[in-house]
């Protein structure tokens, strides 16, 4: 649940808010595992808290950006991303690098 008065996109542009978002993701992943879920999906294109949540649970966790990038790589040599803002462009480039896919990324257009 987002704090009152903080728009969801604000979580992507401030380190402190991304940290809070990561905690929410971790809490949700742990709750899913405890409830007996077989897997957990992270529905944020910036994959906030992905590695942290994966370190806390034994069930698989899939995320939007990682899954989309890996699927794109399975369909062609290179892929591109369309973002809404310059900040999102930077985030997508950083994620591609973190996933070892920077050489497959043709570019990001904001």
Helices and strands, with pairings:
Blueprint: H1 10-13, H2 15-34, E1 40-42, H3 50-54, E2 61-63, H4 64-75, E3 79-82, H5 86-98, E4 105-109
Parallel strand pairs: 1-2, 3-4
Please provide a written account of the structure.
Helix content is 49%, strand content 14%. By secondary structure, the protein is of the alpha/beta class. The strands form 2 sheets. A two-stranded parallel ribbon has the order 1-2. β1 (40-42), α3 (50-54) and β2 form a beta-alpha-beta unit.
How many runs of DSSP E, i.e. beta strands?
Answer: 4
**SS class:** alpha/beta
Name of the level-1 CATH class: Alpha Beta
Q: Return the domain count.
A: 1
How far is it from the N-terminal to the C-terminal residue, by CA?
Answer: 28 Å
What gross morphology would you assign?
Answer: flat
Summary tags:
110 residues; alpha/beta; Rossmann fold; two-stranded parallel sheet; two-stranded parallel ribbon; 49% helix; 14% strand
């Amino acid at each position: 649940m987002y704090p009152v008065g903080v728009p969801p996109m604000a979580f992507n542009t401030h380190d402190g808010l991304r940290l809070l978002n990561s905690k929410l993701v971790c809490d949700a992943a742990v709750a899913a595992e405890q409830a007996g879920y077989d897997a957990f999906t992270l529905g944020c294109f910036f994959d906030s808290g992905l590695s942290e949540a994966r370190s806390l649970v034994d069930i698989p966790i899939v995320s939007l950006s990682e899954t989309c990038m890996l699927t794109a790589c399975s369909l062609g040599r290179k892929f591109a991303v369309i973002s809404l803002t310059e900040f999102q462009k930077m985030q997508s480039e950083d994620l591609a690098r973190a996933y070892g896919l920077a050489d497959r990324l043709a570019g990001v257009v904001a």
